[in-house]
Amino acid sequence: MKRIVLTIRVLYPFWMIIGMFALIYIPSVFLVDENPLETAKNIRADELLFRFGILANIITQLLVVIIPILLYRLFKPVDASLAMFMLVFNLVAAPIALFGEVHSLLALSILDNPLTMMEHLDIKWYSLTIATIFWGLWLFPLGRLVIKSKYLPVWIGYCLYIGGIGYIITALVKIVFPELDLVFDIAEILTIGEVIFIIWFVIKGPKLSNENIL
């Protein structure tokens, strides 16, 4: 168990850094809303960085699988069924998000056709929107496992519930009510509940009972 915890504590910061690079920094550099010509121009200006963004998101999704597998092993003694639900939701999300990167690569091949290129990039972000639903769902069984296990403070489990609600609302607003920017912004703030869990896990670590230490 100690080895599992140590591995997660190493992988989580790496996952956060590379995930922010792929999902926050890269779009801020290249994407111009409703302006395919400027977006294509930005990509041409630094195509290698854009490609690194694709690679970074692929690595991010790989870690989205690896970290939950490790968490499954950590929490399985607490409740095997909850741990399985937690894992399955992530295993569903990863291929959906990876599908979007196929369209990122296709967009690179048609920079001379900005409108079609932008359609492929839109599909990539639509894929991430669908994946976001499952990124929210997995936090509910994880939150319950945290509460039941006492590995971490109980309030961390409730933070995970809040984070899950934030992710799901974020996705549903994008799908059903895309014009409700204020609700979207509030929902995104709620997702900090997952960040609190990660920071606590990395800095403090879970408190394992003696029989679970090996």
Question: What spatial form do the alpha-carbon principal axes imply?
Answer: elongated
Helix proportion: over 70%
Instruction: Give the N-to-C terminal Cα separation.
Output: 5 Å
Q: Which sequence of SSEs, written as H and E, runs from N to C?
A: HHHHHHHHH
Q: Per DSSP, what share of the residues sits in E-state strands of 2 or more residues?
A: under 5%
Main β-sheet, in a few words?
none
Radius of gyration from the CA trace?
Answer: 19 Å
Determine the structural class based on helices, strands and strand pairing: mainly alpha
Number of helices: 9
Number of domains: 1
How many distinct beta strands? 0
Mean pLDDT: 90
Spans of at least 5 consecutive residues with low confidence = none
Keywords:
214 residues, mainly alpha, 83% helix
Condensed summary:
This protein is mainly alpha-helical. It is built from 9 helices and no strands. The termini are close together.
Q: Mind explaining what this structure looks like?
A:
The chain has one domain. Helices cover 83% and strands 0% of the residues. It has nine helices and no strands. It has helices at 2-30, 36-45, 47-75, 80-108, 114-137, 139-149, 154-176, 181-190, 192-203. This is DUF4386 domain-containing protein.
Write the layout of secondary structure elements.
Elements: H1 2-30, H2 36-45, H3 47-75, H4 80-108, H5 114-137, H6 139-149, H7 154-176, H8 181-190, H9 192-203
Organism: Aquimarina amphilecti
Keywords: Membrane, Transmembrane, Transmembrane helix
Pfam families: DUF4386
